[in-house]
Amino acid sequence: MLLLPGSIAAIATVILTVAIVVVYTEQKASKRLFLTRFRNWLDRLCEGLAGRIRRLFTIIAVSCMYIVHQLRAGLARAIAPRPRRTKKQHSKLEFEKTDNHLSSMHDHKSDTALTPAQKKKLRNKKLEERF
Questions:
Q1: Rounded to an integer, what distance in angstroms lies between the CA atom of residue 65 and that of residue 131?
Q2: DSSP secondary structure letters along 47-71
Q3: Rg (CA), the chain
Q4: Global pTM?
Q5: Which pLDDT belongs to residue 6?
């Protein structure tokens, strides 16, 4: 019974010692010496996974900011005072009710407007003068 946990601890200690020696030797040589292709593949795999995780966190952060913004805007709309609508809507424009210069011009324009027959006659006369 005691042999099994002791042997596991001894094997783990040997593996840890070998890993420390390999890492120290590789750092000293500044290149990989042990399982080079497998470790390069593992590095590429980890970098790809880290890139996907970064993109996922960016998407989550932007989504959270959007949700917070929408909540804040909705709260601002709910709290903001609404304008009072006590006045009646005017059926006519102000210048049409009053007797001012603009209303006089408008009345004069409608009084002196040409009929369609007069417009056609004037157009023909102008065209004949040009040619």
A1: 71
A2: HHHHHHHHHHHHHHHHHHHHHHHHH
A3: 44
A4: 0.43
A5: 82
